[in-house]
Write a structure and sequence with these properties.
Helix content is about 60%, strand content about 5%. With about 110 residues, it is mainly α.
């Protein structure tokens, strides 16, 4: 349980003064960064890169699976609308999500 203010409580057994927990990243202590905002900016940037790389990898897997890029695959599915293939329809939805997510995270890199 967390109580806002000066005291941090964990299951009512341990009480630790709030001043014990300093929100300073260890890289700030070593002098690599000027302040906490710079550390936070760096952390967000790194997380965005990881997310972007993850979704780009997923996009590559789909491109290898179908041997085409998303726009070609999307057109192919829409042209074959009468012959529904459930796996391809599911992959279209997943792949589209991967593309959107990759574009979203690229803006933070």
């Amino acid at each position: 349980m967390v109580i806002l203010g000066d005291i941090f409580e964990h299951v009512n057994y341990v009480k630790v003064p709030g001043k014990t927990f300093k929100p300073i990243h260890k890289t700030l202590k070593t002098g690599l960064y000027k302040d906490e905002n710079e550390v936070l900016h760096w952390l967000v940037h790194k997380k965005a890169e990881q997310k972007k790389d993850y979704y780009c990898k997923k996009i590559s897997e789909m491109e290898q699976k179908y041997n085409m890029d998303f726009s070609v695959f999307e057109n192919r599915i829409h042209l074959k609308a009468k012959q529904e293939n459930l796996e391809e329809c599911n992959d279209l939805i997943l792949w589209g999500g991967y593309v959107k997510a990759c574009r979203y995270w690229e803006q933070f890199c």
